[in-house]
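STRUCTURE:
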């Protein structure tokens, strides 16, 4: 990995720097030692430049990874409307689940594996399981967000996670779902 390479190159560079320092302080006047010092200095410079280059590559790769991770997570805003609340004044469980399904559909469509794309091939997604855990529910008139991402894809099932955020982007709930890809004509699992 980049981190291992960077650590090894840094260690080699430090050893060469120490060796150069020792040779320089020996006060040797022979041509052989001068050539060794020059050779070691150029090797040390090579490792230093290589270390700087690897560091830049590592930072670029890390930025690319973070950008890619952010693009894998979809974040969708909602607002609790009057007809969506229960007797406590908070968003009802049924409407929350519905918003999660809408979020999953939008996320999949935006990334090219949603219902719109699959129906052309005679396939569709079917929800197998949905588990929701909420710490609190948004109240009437409040904005909230649902984030979603695909956790894993197996032969028969796909796992999708959700995170519910309040208007201040504090996490107020989580959910996990399992989906199956079904052939609409045979009603059998599809690959």
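SEQUENCE:
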């Amino acid at each position: 990995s980049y981190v291992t390479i960077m650590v090894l190159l840094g260690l080699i560079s430090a050893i060469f720097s120490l060796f150069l320092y020792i040779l320089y302080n020996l006060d040797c006047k022979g041509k052989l030692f001068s050539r060794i010092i020059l050779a070691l200095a150029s090797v040390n410079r090579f490792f230093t430049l290589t270390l700087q280059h690897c560091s830049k590559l590592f930072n670029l790769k890390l930025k690319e990874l973070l950008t890619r991770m952010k693009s894998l997570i979809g974040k969708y805003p909602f607002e609790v409307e009057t007809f969506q609340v229960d007797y406590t004044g908070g968003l009802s469980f049924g409407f929350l689940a519905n918003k999660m399904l809408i979020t999953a559909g939008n996320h999949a469509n935006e990334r090219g594996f949603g219902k719109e794309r699959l129906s052309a091939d005679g396939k569709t997604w079917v929800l197998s399981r949905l588990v929701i855990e909420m710490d609190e529910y948004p109240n009437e008139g409040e904005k909230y967000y649902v984030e979603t991402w695909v956790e894993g894809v197996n032969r028969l099932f796909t796992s999708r996670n959700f995170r519910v955020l309040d208007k201040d982007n504090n996490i107020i709930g989580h959910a996990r779902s399992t989906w199956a890809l079904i052939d609409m004509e045979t009603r059998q699992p599809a690959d």
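REMARK: Residues 155 and 191 are 6 Å apart (CA to CA).
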